[in-house]
Amino acid sequence: MRSLILALSLATAAAAAQPPVLRTVELGAGMHLLRAEVADRDATRSRGLMHRTSLPQNGGMLFVFDQDGIHCMWMKNTLIPLSVAFLDAQGAIINIADMQPHSEQSHCAARPARYALEMTQGWFAQRGVRADARLRGLEKLPPR
């Protein structure tokens, strides 16, 4: 009986450590394509990229907020350095911030944003994607 309880406990812990399978959307930034997991619910936005050890090349996470606002991001329990771009409802980048692993420092949109896109740190800078650039593909977001 103790073995069964231990096995169930380990299986439950392993399942909890696995990131949930999220829908994805293909986005474009200039000539660059990326695939972003869509975090559009409270639970997926709260978890974000916590506990991940890597991201796929040109992969990231798109946070979809219910309304425009001064949304902020932090890196609690996040293991990899990230850059976050805050986007308005039309997909224009408002501002980009670099974030350090395990930091609880808030990084906020400079004006009301509808989305935040997290990518591996430096992804935007390495591709010359800056504030005022417009991302393509947000119209492909699946309905909630």
Task: Kindly describe this structure.
- This protein has one domain: Jelly Rolls (Sandwich).
- It is globular, with a radius of gyration of 16 Å.
- The strands form two sheets. A seven-stranded mixed sheet has the order 6-5-8-3-2-1-9. The protein has a two-stranded antiparallel ribbon with strand order 4-7.
- It has helices at residues 2-17, 42-47, 123-126; strands at residues 24-29, 32-39, 59-69, 72-73, 82-87, 93-99, 107-108, 113-120, 135-136.
- Mean pLDDT is 89; it is low at 4-16.
- It starts with a helix and ends in an 8-residue tail after the last strand.
- The protein has 144 residues and is an alpha+beta fold.
- It contains three helices and nine strands; from the N terminus they run H-E-E-H-E-E-E-E-E-E-H-E.
- The relative contact order is 0.21.
Which features would summarize this protein structure in a list?
144 residues, alpha+beta, Jelly Rolls, 7-stranded mixed sheet, two-stranded antiparallel ribbon, 3 helices, globular
